[in-house]
Amino acid sequence: MSFFDYLFLFTGMGIVTYIPRWLPLFFLAQRDLPKWLIDWLSLIPVAILCALLAPILFTDQASRSLELGKPEFLVAIPTLLFAVKTKNLGGTVLVGMGLYWLAGLLGLQ
Amino acid sequence: MSTHPLKQTGSPALHPSWFREGAMASWPICFGYIPIGLALGVLANQAEIPFWAVAMMSILVFAGSAQFICVAMITAGASIWGIIFTTFVVNLRHFLMSSSVAVHLNGLSRSFLSLFAYGITDESFAVNMTHFRKGNWDHKRAITVNQLANTTWVMSTVCGALLGQFIPRGAFGTDYALTAMFLALLLFQLHNIVYVLTGVAALGIGVAWYLIIPGDSYIIGASISAATLGYFFKRFREKQK
Fold first, then answer.
1. Which of B120, B136, B171 is the last residue of a domain?
2. Residue A103: Cβ within 10 Å count
3. ipTM
4. CB spacing of A44 vs B96 below 8 angstroms
5. For residue range B135-191, what is the model confidence (pLDDT) as tens digits?
6. Domain assignment present for B40
7. Which of these, B36, B87, B167, B224, has the minimum number of CB atoms within 10 Å of its CB?
């Protein structure tokens, strides 16, 4: 592809990515939202995080099938316990990485 | 840029170390982006996409999963419009995040909001929302998180495209960095039983949706259904009192 093919493709991708990021912020942040909407939106972060994590923890993503007890899930348990104990985001990331690395060395991956 | 404070009740006086605090909050994201960005660069390199095009894509699009899909579709010989449409669908979820973060950026100037919108990703959204909830956060710290994550992303994807094959994949558990970050951020969000039930519902619906329906609609589908269930549970609980 030429320079202008790439420019056209990535500009198009950029525009369709930017609009959903921009529209609500631009129009909602200027007004006071109704209480029901604020209540509903306050549950969105938890819901999105769990939706993102669900296939990582419970499915085989290559074949898109259910897989219980995969290393991602097993490592998640001590990682979560560490997060409960310490409330430390950076530390939790390092502990999770270390345990996942260890799981790989033990042949679990 | 606007200098007036956020319309937050009871937020503590924020001293001007906003850049340092924003940087401190963003490092887990940056740490997670480096291996993923490198991997994307390597794949782009293998698909014979030049490094300057990788830089252009990371700057103009700035959305990890869509960029991976784009490289795969270019490799498979997909049409430009097909790639653009797929990107739109994959990134629609940011609509929810933008709505949710808007509550905390109430009353800021429209030019600031337009700049801020560029940096909304799964990761920056989750980190900023956690801090906003604690109350010790403002728009300057939040956009610092967005833009440092953005800079890291652009640099690591370009490095991956340039250095390509010399970097081993998944060394030291780096593949798990973002998963661990999501787990910790999720835990910090569980303020009461309503949030716990919303999370459990999103996990269950998310798995089922992911298995039944192809594509990435499970993210939006499970989030909206679970938040709605959680909202009605909250209403039900308040009536019981």
1. B171
2. 18
3. 0.89
4. yes
5. 889 999 999 999 999 999 999 999 999 987 676 666 677 778 878 988 998 998 898
6. yes
7. B167
